Amino acid sequence: MKTVLKHTLSTLTLLASSLSVAAQSLTPPTDAPYLTREGAIAIIGNDGMHDLMNNFNTLFTQQHPGFRFALTAKGSSVGIPALTADATAIAPLSREAWLGDMHGFEQVKGYVPLDIRIGYSGFGPRAPHKTPPAVYVNAANPLPGLTLQDLARIITAGQPEGDLNTWGQVGIEHHAARRIHVYGLRDDGGFATNLRMDKLGGKPFSAQYEALNSREAVIDAVANDPYGIGLTGWVDASKTAKNVRVLPLAAKAGEPFRSPDYETVAAGAYPLSAFLHLYVDNPPGRKLPPFIKEYLRLALSDEGQKAVREQRDSEQGYVPLSAADLQAERHKLEGL
Length: 336
Fold this sequence. Notes:
This protein is α/β, with parallel strands linked by helices. The protein folds into two domains: 2-122 and 274-334, Periplasmic binding protein-like II (D-Maltodextrin-Binding Protein, domain 2); 134-266, D-Maltodextrin-Binding Protein, domain 2, CATH 3.40.190.10. The chain is built from eleven helices and twelve strands. The strands form four sheets. The protein has a five-stranded mixed β-sheet with strand order 8-7-9-5-10, with helices on one face. β7, α6 (191-199) and β8 form a beta-alpha-beta unit. α2 (50-63) crosses α9 and α9 crosses α10. It is elongated.
């Protein structure tokens, strides 16, 4: 009962805040560094979020006439650098920001950008579209699943509970003595590095980790190796091989193993889910510009989440936030 009441109060507070902002006549900025020559507000970031951001822009300008946006959708890799250079008001990313980009922002600004999460970046498998970050094994492998802790013990070295090196250590008795062959992407500051730091405890990759050049190469390696396991990002594995499968995962021991199907991702229960992010520059101790706060509020509103939900059948397959994650993001925005 207390949880329901807290959620209701949080929603009412956000609604009251939004009505207050709407009641003030929002005025477009006139001298911000992120304005284009024509006076439009620049938004620079992920290309896959192009349609979603256009929908947000349309909703915003319908509610607040006089605002104009210029969307440049070139990829998540340009978002944080553009925010660092004051070239964008909002940086949309469909994955976690790379650590190097965040360190660059912090070095220039002295603080980290504000991160508002507005959805999840994909679900699957759903050929011909890409499945979000996942662990793959050979289709002949009977392993039912892994906890994130045991995955870390296989893929990285130096975990407190010790490393896992053979299939027998994870319960595959008929291959008990065979070593686990680990495949993944290069530890180059991109996907593999960030996932290792964010989800796997930050330890270095193990000596048996074979870094490959592409996601497809990881899938191919697992398909041709019955003792292999692969960790990779967004990919349609079926285009490369038929004899691999996504390995279900559990966030911790005692929880059920889960795959990245739509219902699991929508419930916020898939351990490797990546979020959709809207990053903004928010110096400590300063209020957000009213129009930016209103834009973020719109993305977290029921109308905004409906726009995310409408991307389900698109190539990207975006998923709206779970009730718990949505409440957390709305609460984050309240005091800004």
